[in-house]
């Protein structure tokens, strides 16, 4: 029961008791009044009357005795007569007011009157009989006494009656007093209860007022609406938001979605409790939370302006699925879209496009130009695909590789479109006031004809692209034979397993020298496989197979162990030579790679500062963020890090800055024609300049001539490695 209801009930009860009490008290008062009035108007006159009557009887008797004594009527008879008349009157009066014994009084009066007359007759006669007279007088006295007795009884009765009445009225007054006291107690109790409830009520109201401040001060818009959806209350934050969105508007309903009223009706029918929805109001993105208060037939609406959050989220999502340079969707988005096609068995084709010899463009023209070329090519591809008849999505996968996902395409259409794109490249690309003629290699495959898994299709499209790249400026459809070369790996794989067991692998070391002084300061460890028949297989052949089959994990562990032992041995013998170890992609990404290193540091007791890890550029760029995180851990362990084959991959300059590396190893392709090729010279100069800018050391590899050395020395290259100084050989020969 609600508090106010309780208070009303108590008040009503008190009033009802009050009315009943007033009635009782009034009644009792009236009764008491009647009693006292009776006393004054009836009882007292009655007693007076009796008293007078008694006096009259006595006086009459006395007068008759006087008459007997004086024996003369003179002066007396008149008095006797008038007393007798008084007596008669009084008797009459008494007769009217009394009943019962009073009936005998007239008879006594008759006797008195008769005795009075007999005495008178006797006394006035000449022959007065004195005896008779005395007898009569005696009789008179007797009658008087009888009357007296009756009157005494009467007096007693009247007095008793009066007393009873007094007691009754006293009782009534007492009852009244009791009732009044009781009523007072009831009122006091009610007042206490009422006071208690009022206090609770006051406290609740205060609390409610404090709560009411909550929506008032809420920084987010809060509204109260009636069941029809009309706004009854809106806090200041609602007004503020309205002003932000529509500075001119006064109408708070402008903050609600246009279909709000309509939806409200259906929610009222189908939902209970809370409904959440989003809506764009002008430029703002708002999040609504509506509570339906069915019992109160009203709704609470909470609004949150999530524009910033939404924009940040959109931005993040955009970044996750888009390439920074071109704004095109990235590899991740492509994989999702392709998976979507496969899931819904929608036929499609994948066309991979790559710029031929792109690394030479970036190396010769600089990374910014490379970025710009990619950007412009992305734009051109988008324009071209937009004008094509079928639905085509364009992606940039990595470096210079783009991808087109052609929906519902037939084989001929894809080839036709690919040729269109190739033809369009006859027109130069203008970047930084220079024109570039690009050759594109393209490879494509079809879903479902060429595969039914995302990875399978991507791998097949890449196989086709690789084939096209080998030919250059060509378009190739996927053919299962493209993977046939993998078959030739089988004997190599088997051979490597044997080689590990039979100790056919040997580590050779090639010196890295200081470019200025020509002194040896480090050595790169390079694996050699001497077969049973005495022949040697190049690591360039078997390392990729080991990577593909996963054997590189085992072989790589052995290589690192040998490198650590050699470094330890050199330093223990007093040779300050750092050992550089090549780390393959698979090894680098292996989840126990760091554990393995820690384990080997422990077992070989090598100082990690005497070890440099060579990681290829393309490997790092494949997943730059993850690579950075691993590299940071390697740095923290104490290793030096070098980027191998620098210039062949495509490092984004922004990433390069973030790599925690120590040196760049300029790929031998740039060193090879250093003396004759001006282009290569400027590439190497640019790389050295970049490295100095980033405070990195440079190593040039593949130095075969004195001239190359001199050029590099003049360019301020820090270290040199190549056949000119030493061929890879055993540690003993290296020291010699
Ligand atoms: P790389 O890491 O770029 O190694 C340099 C290669 O250039 C070596 O070939 C080396 O012998 C060769 N070289 C050194 N100086 C000269 C020179 O003046 N002229 C010419 N023409 N070549 C020179 P190698 O030893 O045949 O190794 C080939 C590739 O195999 C390496 O390229 C590396 O990617 C891989 N590899 C070799 N050993 C290992 C290893 O222990 N672990 C891993 N993961 N990969 C290795
Ligand atoms: Ca290397
Ligand atoms: Ca290299």
Query: According to CATH, what is the topology of the largest domain?
Result: TIM Barrel
Query: Over the alpha carbons, how many angstroms does the gyration radius reach?
Result: 65 Å
Output the structural class: alpha/beta
Distance between the termini: 104 Å
Helix proportion of residues, in percent?
Answer: 55-70%
Spans where pLDDT lies below 50 across 5 or more residues: none
Explain how this protein is built.
With 736 residues, this protein is an alpha/beta fold. The chain has four domains: 3-192, Four Helix Bundle (Hemerythrin (Met), subunit A) (Up-down Bundle), CATH 1.20.120.1730; 222-312, Beta-Lactamase, CATH 3.30.450; 322-478, 2-Layer Sandwich (Alpha-Beta Plaits), CATH 3.30.70; 488-734, TIM Barrel (Alpha-Beta Barrel), CATH 3.20.20.450. 58% of the residues lie in helices and 17% in strands. The protein contains 24 helices and 21 strands. Strands 13-14-16-17-18-19-20-21 form an eight-stranded mixed beta barrel. The protein is rod-shaped and about 210 Å long.
Q: Quick recap of the structure?
A:
The protein has 736 residues and is an alpha/beta fold. The chain has 24 helices and 21 strands. The strands form 4 sheets. Strands 13-14-16-17-18-19-20-21 form an 8-stranded mixed β-barrel.
């Amino acid at each position: 029961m609600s508090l106010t209801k309780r208070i009303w009930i108590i008040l009503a009860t008190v009033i009802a008791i009050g009315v009943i009490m007033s009635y009782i008290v009034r009644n009792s008062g009236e009764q008491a009044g009647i009693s006292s009035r009776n006393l004054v108007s009836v009882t007292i006159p009655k007693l007076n009357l009796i008293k007078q009557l008694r006096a009259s009887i006595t006086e009459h008797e006395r007068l008759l005795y006087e008459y007997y004594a004086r024996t003369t009527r003179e002066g007396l008879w008149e008095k006797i007569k008038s007393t007798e008349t008084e007596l008669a009157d009084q008797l009459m009066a008494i007769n009217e007011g009394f009943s019962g014994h009073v009936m005998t009084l007239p008879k006594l009066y008759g006797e008195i009157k008769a005795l009075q007359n007999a005495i008178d007759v006797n006394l006035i006669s000449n022959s007065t009989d004195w005896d008779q007279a005395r007898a009569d007088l005696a009789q008179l006295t007797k009658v008087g006494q009888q009357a007296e007795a009756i009157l005494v009884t009467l007096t007693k009765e009247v007095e008793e009656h009066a007393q009873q009445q007094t007691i009754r009225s006293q009782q009534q007054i007492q009852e009244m007093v009791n009732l009044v006291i009781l009523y007072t107690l009831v009122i006091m109790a009610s007042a206490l209860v009422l006071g208690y409830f009022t206090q609770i009520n006051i406290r609740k109201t205060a609390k409610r007022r404090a709560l009411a401040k909550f929506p008032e001060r809420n920084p987010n818009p809060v509204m109260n609406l009636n069941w029809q959806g009309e706004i009854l209350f809106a806090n200041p934050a609602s007004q503020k938001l309205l002003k932000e969105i529509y500075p001119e508007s006064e109408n708070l309903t402008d903050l609600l979605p246009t279909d709000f009223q309509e939806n409200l009706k259906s929610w009222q029918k189908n939902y209970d409790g809370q409904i959440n929805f989003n809506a764009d109001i002008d430029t703002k993105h708002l999040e609504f939370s509506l509570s339906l208060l069915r019992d109160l037939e009203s709704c609470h609406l909470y609004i949150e302006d999530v524009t910033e959050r939404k924009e940040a989220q959109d931005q993040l999502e955009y970044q996750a699925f888009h390439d920074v340079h071109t704004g095109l969707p990235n590899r991740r988005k492509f994989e999702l879209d392709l998976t979507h096609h496969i899931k819904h068995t929608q036929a499609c084709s994948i066309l991979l496009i790559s710029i031929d010899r792109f690394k030479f463009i970036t190396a010769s023209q600089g990374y910014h130009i490379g970025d710009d070329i990619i950007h412009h090519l992305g734009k051109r591809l988008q324009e071209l695909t937009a004008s094509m008849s079928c639905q085509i999505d364009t992606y940039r996968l990595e470096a210079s590789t783009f991808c087109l996902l052609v929906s519902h395409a037939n084989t001929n259409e894809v080839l036709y479109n690919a040729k269109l794109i190739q033809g369009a490249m006859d027109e130069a690309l203008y970047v930084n006031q220079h024109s570039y003629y690009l050759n594109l290699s393209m490879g494509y495959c079809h879903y479902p004809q060429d595969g039914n898994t995302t990875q399978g299709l991507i791998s097949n499209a890449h196989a086709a692209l690789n084939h096209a790249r080998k030919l250059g400026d060509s378009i190739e459809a996927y053919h299962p034979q493209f993977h046939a070369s993998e078959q030739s790996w089988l004997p190599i794989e088997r051979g490597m397993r044997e080689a590990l067991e039979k100790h056919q692998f040997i580590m050779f070391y090639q010196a890295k020298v200081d470019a200025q002084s020509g002194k040896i300061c480090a050595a790169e460890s390079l694996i050699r496989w001497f077969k049973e028949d005495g022949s040697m297989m190049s690591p360039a052949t078997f390392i990729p197979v080991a990577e593909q089959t996963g054997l590189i994990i085992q072989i790589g562990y052995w290589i690192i162990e040998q490198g650590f032992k050699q470094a330890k041995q050199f330093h223990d013998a007093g040779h300050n030579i750092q050992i550089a170890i090549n780390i393959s992609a698979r090894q680098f990404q292996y989840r126990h790679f760091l554990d393995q290193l820690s384990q080997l540091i422990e077992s070989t007791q090598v100082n990690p500062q005497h070890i440099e890890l060579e990681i290829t550029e393309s490997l790092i760029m494949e997943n730059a963020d993850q690579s950075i995180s691993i590299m940071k851990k390697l740095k923290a362990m104490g290793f030096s890090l070098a980027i191998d084959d620098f210039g062949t991959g495509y490092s984004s300059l922004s990433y390069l800055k973030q790599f925690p590396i120590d040196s760049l190893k300029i790929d031998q392709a740039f060193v090879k024609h250093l003396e004759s090729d001006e282009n290569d010279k400027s590439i190497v100069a640019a790389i050295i300049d970049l490295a100095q800018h980033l405070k990195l050391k440079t190593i040039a590899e593949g130095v075969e001539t004195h001239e190359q050395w001199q050029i590099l020395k003049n360019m301020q290259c820090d270290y040199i490695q190549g056949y000119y100084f030493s061929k890879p050989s055993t540690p003993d020969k290296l020291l010699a």
